[in-house]
Amino acid sequence: MKETKTTTKVTVDLSERSYEILIGKNLLKSAGELVAPAVRGRKQILVTDANIARVWLPTFRKAMAAQGFHPEEIILSPGEKSKSLHVFSNLIKNILDFEPDRNTCLIALGGGVIGDLTGFAASTVLRGLSFLQIPTTLLAQVDSSVGGKTGINTSHGKNLVGSFYQPQMVIADTEALNTLSPRELRSGYAEILKYGLIVNPEFFEWLEVNGTRVIDGTEDARRHAISCSCETKAGIVSKDEREGGVRALLNLGHTFGHALEKETSYGRELLHGEAVSIGMSMAFELSHRLGLCSSTDVKRVKDHIASIGLPNSLKHLKDFDWHTGRLLTHMAHDKKTRDGKINFILARGIGNAFICDTVPIKEVLAVLESAIAS
In the chain, what are the domain boundaries? Predict the structure, then answer.
């Protein structure tokens, strides 16, 4: 990680497909200058959503025009429901309508939905176009824009259709976070917390002290949290790009969380980060039930989640008809399942996570039943 007064640079080391993550304030105002080294051809196609376009498209256009770039624009409807086969099909048609060639560059300006859709499109159109990530949400800046996972949801589950396809560059402008609602910021924070819980106990300790400063918008705290998160993920991805081993640790809380999202139809009642925060609480509860971590660890994790204003249980979702059987079925259909076995990310303590496919189903059901009853 390299740091100046204005920008932090993190490298994702993947040999000839390595790329840089730039983190700093007001980087969108310099977008044209920053992307120029990564743009090969004359044509660029921007993909964004209506909410982002309203706030950030004028700034982006001006910055790109200053360097002689005038991207074509595709504006999608905002929200998780756009991560669908139908929207993806229309996106491909719209891209092809602009007659791209193999030097065309796609640019994703937005949150995780836009990044996932654009990256997946880039991996398929003309059998592969270059693309750039300009994430505008905290969740996208610390997680979904980094590492090359792209994809869409189906009626069978979340992110079940997609590809591993790396961007040419990631530009994370911390100023963009000031337009987010407190709820969206907290949702993104769940992914920051994840890094401390899986491999970095010192980072978790820092978050216990500084987490509220990240949410409140203190620039040095926010930049440090994003940089540490990206550096942790970059290190893991560099070792295991396609999730054959250690990268699976990044799924802490997601096996439970994706099942909760599926049961709530990916609606606004439960944002992705909120589902992950509940899922991480469940993962530590399960680890404690199996004698792997202490009750003190569980309490620290759940207390910190609550201190940020994130859910650590299903208490605020009492209106849903939760059913352990359905949740377990969703978990069994998760893409992380191998040979019929559900892979769980468990913990022997804070910062000491590991992969396990031998968890007794009765223990999983006990955790689910406890969560529903809480």
Answer: 7-179, 182-373
Retrieve residue 281's tokens: 């609480």
Q: What is the pTM of this model?
A: 0.94
* Architecture of the CATH domain 182-373: Up-down Bundle (1.20)
Question: Which helix H or strand E contains 339, and what residues bound it?
Answer: none
Active-site residue list: 127, 149, 191, 233, 243, 247, 251, 254, 258, 272
Q: Return the biggest CA–CA distance within the chain.
A: 61
Angstrom distance (rounded) from CA 317 to CA 219: 33
67/36 Cα distance (integer angstroms): 8
Say if CB 173 and CB 26 are below 8 A apart.
yes
Express each pLDDT in 262-298 by its tens digit. 999 888 999 999 999 999 999 999 999 999 999 999 9
Domain topology for 7-179: Rossmann fold (3.40.50)
**HEC assignment per residue over 27-95:** HHHHHHHHHHHHCCCCCEEEEEEHHHHHHHHHHHHHHHHCCCCCCEEEEECCCHHHCCHHHHHHHHHHH
Give how far the C-alpha of residue 147 lies from the chain's centroid of Cα atoms, to the nearest Å. 10
* Gap between the Cα atoms of 175 and 184, Å rounded: 15
